[in-house]
């Protein structure tokens, strides 16, 4: 008797699901995602210099020169 109503309900339900998924995708795409590579704090120049020296990227002379220059520029006392 009312066979068209059951089909209408099926398509109606389908389109509601399409719109809901579409809205979720759009809002999910628009919200910023925290990046895992972002540091929580900014490393100070002396810490970067120490890390590079420990890794062997710079020589002892370069380390001492740059350390003195950084301490002079920032006004840090010599440890």
SSE layout and pairing:
Elements: H1 3-30, H2 45-54, H3 60-74
Plain-language structure description:
This protein has 79 residues and is mainly α. It has two domains: 1-29; 41-79. The protein is built from three helices and no strands. α2 packs antiparallel against α3 (60-74). The longest helix has 28 residues, at 3-30. The mean pLDDT is 78.
Summarize, please.
With 79 residues, the protein is mostly helical. It is built from 3 helices and no strands. Helix 2 (45-54) runs antiparallel to helix 3 (60-74).
The general outline is rod-shaped
Domains counted in the coordinates: how many?
2
Let me know the largest β-sheet: none
Mean pLDDT: 78
In percent, how helical is the residue content? 55-70%
Model regions low in confidence, pLDDT < 50 over at least 5 residues: none
Order of helices and strands: HHH
Q: What structural category arises from helix and sheet content?
A: mainly alpha
Computed CA radius of gyration, to the nearest angstrom: 30 Å
Percentage of β-strand residues: under 5%
Number of helices: 3
CA-CA gap between termini: 92 Å
Number of strands: 0
């Amino acid at each position: 008797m009312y066979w068209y109503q059951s089909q209408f309900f099926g398509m109606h339900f389908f389109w509601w699901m399409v719109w809901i998924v579409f809205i979720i995708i759009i809002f999910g795409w628009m919200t910023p995602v925290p990046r895992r590579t972002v540091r929580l704090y900014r490393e100070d120049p002396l810490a970067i210099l120490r890390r590079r020296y420990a890794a062997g990227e710079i020589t002892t002379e370069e380390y001492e020169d740059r350390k003195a220059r950084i301490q002079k520029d920032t006004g840090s006392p010599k440890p």
